Amino acid sequence: MSDLLIKGARIVDAGREMAGDVLIAGGIIEEVSEEIPPPKGIPLLPAGGKFLLPAFVDLHAHFRDPGFPQKEDLLSGSRAAAHGGFTVVSLMPNTDPPCDSPEVARYILDKARRIGLVEVHLVGAITRGLRGEELVDMEALAPYVWAFSDDGHGVEDHRLMWEAAKRARELGKTIYPHPEFRGLPSRELGEELMVARDLWICRRTGARFHMAHISSPGAAELVALAKEKRLPVTCEATPHHLCLSREEADHPVNPPISTREAVDALVKGLVEGIIDAVATDHAPHTDADVAAGVPGISGIETAFPLLYTRLVKTGTIGLRTLSRLLSLGPARIMGLRKRGLVREGFVGDLVLVTEEELEVTGDFFFSKGKNTPLLGWRLRGRVWATIREGEVIYLDGKVKGRDFDDHRQVIRGG
Ligand code: NCD
Asked: Which residue owns the Cα nearest ligand 1 atom 11?
């Protein structure tokens, strides 16, 4: 809950663009205007004309804690998030043990709070052990999670998904399907069938549904139809499914990277407003995992540069639309209030970005996972500073707690 004056920025959010200053007091945005005279004793961050956006919110990340510290843990994941411009992350339950009980949820939330870098929210498992056989105690888990998902696995049993949706509706929680059905020759058809089934369960139960990583244009079409019917449904796509084609980036990930034709169709869905949010599906793995072909992309740090380079610089979408997809959209899906815009009364979570070019190398990553098809790529759109509740948690290559302990050491005044 800090105070900070950011001067001389190009402010962009989902609704507007303006040149000006932003004053944060006690962690909340107090004033946004063309010129704010520096109040005494408040630290000043000169933005030098950089873009100032609301900080990003990631609906879909894997920090591997508990269970897989060789891939990632809550500390390295939090640092990677700050480096990527994210101040809020929602973590998936495929840890070991999985997040299917209040004990595991409390362990993650307590540890994340002690680290104190980014705000961590949880998605709880739908079935015990993510085995797809019996439901978790959703009532017991509900106070700790905003949604339920068997991420990494589609819930193939219709009766279980139907029961889960009815309970989620009673509890006021979201069902977050991972729409995948193994054992069909066509992977796209598997995604489409699961989305169609879940939309029908959504219609029958009235439960809120948010569809994970839509990658097939047919699935996006189904979501569009459901939205026309005003069903309570939203969906996300990942940076890699929106920006990369199988022809140029061959990397194992679930769902697989699509053909150029399918990517173009998915981007059309994005432009038409069918996709509500971009979520990273940050899935860090070790080099040994990569050699063994384990699917996943370490993506929370490359999300903004990849989207900026491939979608904004090409004129496909504007920076305001990207801001909606990375901040306001996901914040609304999670039910977070006063987040995702640079407006008075909103939380002082902001990010400063530049048009500068960067090269994706192993050293670029704060994440333990360097598993990405982007190694060696040059991208534009560098996150220069990440601010959480008025406190600078990442600045120009340095992250709070690792490279500096107090933002007053790196910015003027205070
Ligand atoms: C995910 C992971 O590694 O947690 N990997 C991925 O490719 N998206 C799990 C999964 O969805 O298969």
From this structure: 152
